[in-house]
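name: query_chain
kind: protein
chains: 1
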Amino acid sequence: MLHRSWQRPKNSQAAQPPRRRPATRAERGQALVIIAMATMGLLAFIGLMVDAGILFIGVGHLRRAVDAAALAASSQFREARTYDQIKASAREVIHLNGVEPTDLHLWWCAPGLGTGDPLAEPHDPGLCAAPGAPQRKLVRVEAKTVVRFAFLTIIGFHSTEIVAGAVSEAASVDVALAIDTSDSMAFDAACDDGDDDNGDGLSDNCTHFVGGDEEPIPPPNPDAEGPTADALQDSLDCYNGLDDDGDGFADDGCPEAPLTAPECRNGLDDDGDGQIDDGCRDDYYRNPAMCNILDAGGADGLPGECHPFEEVKLAAVSFIDRLYFPFDRVAVVTYDINASLIMPITNTLTVDQRKDAVRNLVVSRRRVPVGYPGAITGCNWTGPGTDVSGCTNTSIGGGLKAAGNEFGRVPIRRESVWVVILLTDGAANASELGDAGILNKFCPPSTWGQPYCRDASVNTRHTVLDPTIWQSPPLGFPPDPGHTDPYNPESSYNAGDPLAVYDADDFARDMADFAACAPKIADAAEWCKDSLDYTSDEGGQGAIIYAIGLGQLVINNLYGDPNAGDDLLRYVANVGLDGDPDPSVGPDPCSLVAEPGPPDPSQNDSYNCGNYYFSETGTGLTSVFESIASRIFTRLTK
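structure:
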């Protein structure tokens, strides 16, 4: 029997489990190193994230601090502070934000102060406007500080320096002053107006000239004799309850006037004393032809002695001093029966020349009818019912229109703040030039009686726009659905003859809309579309308007609504606040402020609300203009 011997399978070893060699001491040490290195890497990664967070937080803090510092610097720059003052203000604000700067620099366009080196303080050519373009109030602030790390110090990174910068712009202001120069701007200097005109602490004590000095008039002394007594008696005779000079005002002042006054050389006995051309006593201070030429050299700094116009000029000059040229611009418009541009907004005058232009303004001559002494051509009123349109002299609408037009004068500065400051001492009774030499275009025959060129109610509003503007939709302006009735419930349209009812007050309100409403129909308030022809792309200017009412005629007019002036100026201020004249849309700060009552010499009725200021006397105007100047704001640009 054959048998086969047993043999090991060739793959028997592969079937056996592998045998591991015991780890040596060296191999165990390598594992510890790898673990340690991995732990160090993990810690470094965590540290990097933590310190990166510290770095980003530090950068954020510095940027916020520099932004605030830039705003503070631009605010100080607006006030024309020195470089050291501006830098100190910026540093203080950075400190208040919890940042300790290691270095701080600031620059603006100051070619006269810099060295030409872009890093030289304070001049930075990059902040200067292109040649011929208006300058802007740009201030650049740059600060450095050190951020200290928490974990990266393990690997030798202890801190790093970070830098942040910001450019802030103090609002460059384009401001148009619209100043009333009507003859009532000389009405304060009268003996019967309740004012202390000569500052002696007494009201209505009837001063006169004796020996060149202004003194209170004592009680009459029938036994007095001599030249001084004669002069005194002449003065007392003027306070007799009569209109001695035929100007429509009884007992309105009668000091001796210079013989150079025009009304003193008219061959008439103006004060009824039996003498021709011997000095116009009764009308001395309140007649612009006389008070304008007093103190012609401006010994008190302001030529003329018409009040409250002297105080108006003083306050306006003070306001111009607050502006910062050439970064700000100013225009001056005056108005009586029409508006006149005295100084365009693009003028290149020096600061002193600008202020002199205001100082030399004069009150307009009285518009008395033809046939009276001192008559002005165009005033042809001959009695009740005849055309009085050329005899009125307060074109508030004309002043607003001329002021608003200045913002469209090239070069146009859309980045600046456009501001109109309107000052008047009464209600609107004049408008603008019409065709064929018409002096007062919007004075319909229905208003040829008192209160002249406006209807008797402040609650009426008329438009000269074609009513097709209200139809839907206006061609070419799909954003506006159109409307078939006026948005303004006080508006109406006379299709037969729009000018039959459209008066000086309507014109003034429309021109307030022109100055303040938005230029594009899509942005315009609804009421604006009742006064401005947006369908012909004739929108508003979008300016801010501050309205100032001065004196008793604003709140106590003798004809029509006593508060006609106050009501109009409240409207002007409301549309000038936010571009929306609708009192039911947005807050009207004056809606809850009562209008002053009848004049009371024992109290001051001055008040302000929103963009409207009423000052009972001229002496309050400086604080009014100061308040307006302080409301100029700044904004961050980059």
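note: DSSP finds eleven helices and 15 strands in the chain.
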